[in-house]
Amino acid sequence: MKKIAITGTAGFIGSHLAKKLIKKGYDVVGIDNINDYYDIRLKYGRLKEAGIDREKIEYNKVVVSDKYDNYKIIKLNLEDRDNMFKFFEKEEFSAVCNLAAQAGVRYSLENPYSYIESNISGFMNILEICRQFDIKNLSFASSSSVYGLNKKQPFSEKECVSHPVSLYAATKKANELMAHSYSHLYKIQATGLRFFTVYGPWGRPDMALFKFVKNILEDKPIDVYNYGNMQRDFTYIDDIVEGVFRVIENPAKPEADWDAVTADNSTSSASYRIYNIGNNAPVSLMEFIETIEEVLGKKARKNLMPMQAGDVESTYADSSLLSNSLGYKPSTSIEEGVRKFISWFRKFYGI
What we know:
Layout: E1 3-7, H1 12-23, E2 27-32, H2 40-49, E3 62-64, E4 71-75, H3 81-91, E5 95-98, H4 107-110, H5 112-132, E6 137-143, H6 167-186, E7 189-195, E8 198-199, H7 208-217, E9 222-224, E10 231-232, E11 235-236, H8 237-249, E12 272-277, E13 283-284, H9 285-296, E14 302-304, H10 320-326, H11 334-349
Parallel strand pairs: 1-2, 1-5, 2-4, 5-6, 6-7, 7-12, 8-11, 9-14
Antiparallel strand pairs: 3-4, 10-13
Helix pairs in contact: 1-8, 5-6, 7-9, 9-11
């Protein structure tokens, strides 16, 4: 049985990935600090669905699932170097998937140091752990935010991404660079995953879909930035998780004929790859809102606002590299995905 550590296991993507790997027969160990960036009841709800009893959770204590005998978690900060190293020394993992991060573009304007602590210092600990305990298979979350001021669309992994417009994006680009250096130096098979606007059941409350549905149901106006003139490549959670799973099953390999003079930015002479995971079908913000209204059977009151600092007008993933390399491309339509989210939302909140 393959043994994998998933950081951020109480998070949106991490909780879904844990369930998939559990069912695939992996021995899954989750790591999460269960912070209060957003409502922790949602995080505990995700864990409960996987058989983790909230009452048993304490810092630096392993809790075994009551539902799956191949799943357990530990509450830990990635920045807690001593306890992280002691834990990994005991467990002897064959792979690590790092999904833990301080998320959110707008919050990075308010609390920048939390992004350095979690996304830089925490990720540094993950890399050192992989080096010291000879864990060769590393996958990690990046973000479509790294494309920043890039205008050429669809966004391709082959292009340079040197102009981020938020500290969050800058930390994700830093993760990619850090991982490449460790792959080159220590033969770690590292794959970075640029996620494009992930949505679906158990989604984060700071994301547009959650806020829109909540406010419409509560007869409150919704904030629509850039006066609605925005596009996002919304990608359903199950599609994201399938892509991550395939990456874990197929660790990065060196590019045999890599040439530093002519090579693109997605590959390397090291065992390192970067993949977009996006739906390859951008949707306008107004169309997105109309889809929500149709499913809810209720109109939104829109508060039209200017663009917020750190945001970009449009995201659009070129998913051909993922498709060509791993034979997979996201395919869930926005209508199907929104419907599934709203069904979950009504059930979870009893609305």
